[in-house]
Amino acid sequence: MERVEEVVIVGAGICGLATAVALKRYGIEAVVLERAESLRATGAALTLGSNAWLALDALGVSHKLHSLYSPLTKYVITNVSTGAVQHVPLPRTEGGLGGTKTMHRKALLEVLAEELTTKNIRFSCKITSISTEDINGSSTAILQMEDETIIKTKVLIGCDGVHSQVARSLGLGEPGGFNGGYVPISDTELYLFLATGNSAAPGDLDITAKTPPELIQRYVVEHYCKDFPPVYLDVVNHLELSTLTWASLKFRLPWDVIFGKLNKGTITVAGDAMHPMTPDLGQGGGCALEDAVVLGRSIGNTYLKNGNQLLPSEVAQAIDDYVKARRWRVTGVITASFLSGWVQDGSSWLKRLVRDSKIKMVLHAIQKSNHAIVIKTVVYCLWPRSSLWHPFVSSVIFVTVPPLGFQYLLLVLQSCTQVQVYSILQDLSY
């Protein structure tokens, strides 16, 4: 059987659903293909910063989530070597932007899915191959499905995660693999996480996603966080085993994003398919939502300009504009996230020097000033509100900031993110 579609999105995760919602707000009905039998919610929760809330505002769904979760006000960071505890305030929310909030991943997926119809999302759709051919002078993506169905589409968007088939079809290689903490979601729930740079667990057990959760729990306690504060161990020992998962973390090297092929004609990628990153800044979900809004705007404006038609040559240019707008932005976040994890590691004298020797000075300066306003003033000077993220500015930020320590880097990135995304989203007229 053969089907022809206007737009196909591969993957019904956060980015895939958000992109479909963004396109629908322009009148474009995309088809989302998901290999799982239902909405997938790998990972119990995620943290969204102000940039993500701006994107959700643009998608018209933020009001459904705002009242469910309270903003985080500070980070409490413990040095397991010395026992020193540092309290790092987060920037205050302004203009109803939402602040930094941790939420159930499934709640976000369901809110996005509610904006779509059952005909928009198709489950149990497994792709066996992706190819292209010229039809009437235009490049068309052809998807061969496991059930032998053939889907032809004018536009193909890969939102299928770190092992993206669409990314591989563009020539992007597999991303490479990488502290712990817990974040309150509500008055009765905590989101627990542990990230390690070891490729395998210490001891005699090779932990995988299929390892029984009780064994994962035991190994986490005995090998990974035995020196963590007692309160963390108490949370681990009392967690709900059915919610415990183990997965390999992946990130794409910054130069692979800068020089890699992120689009070909009317085929492109978004979210983790484009820019998987380490979790140290909690920006994976936020950047995916940014992608969805910018890509939806690019294709949507072209659709409206051409009388509600998707002309392949015009869509290809719109996708090219999307890639140009996102390439340097996500490269900067990937780099910052990696560097913040590097600073937190403390496994070498250099890392400990960067992490510990400068942080007292930074925290003292932060406590004596309104850090959010000071940082934003600098950012406004570097980024006019009408401009997009510029690579030169990215270089200045990341050469200047890392020696000051993780906490300051986090505050700078969050403030930069808020200003930057606002300049991208402010002219959206859904």
From TrEMBL:
Domain of life: Eukaryota
All residue ranges annotated as the FAD-binding domain in the record: 6-173, 261-311
Keywords: Monooxygenase, Oxidoreductase
GO molecular-function terms, A-Z: FAD binding; monooxygenase activity
The keyword Amino-acid biosynthesis appears for this protein: no
InterPro entries on file: FAD-bd, FAD/NAD-bd_sf, MOase
Pfam families membership: FAD_binding_3
Protein family membership: Belongs to the 3-hydroxybenzoate 6-hydroxylase family.
The protein's name in its UniProt record: Monooxygenase
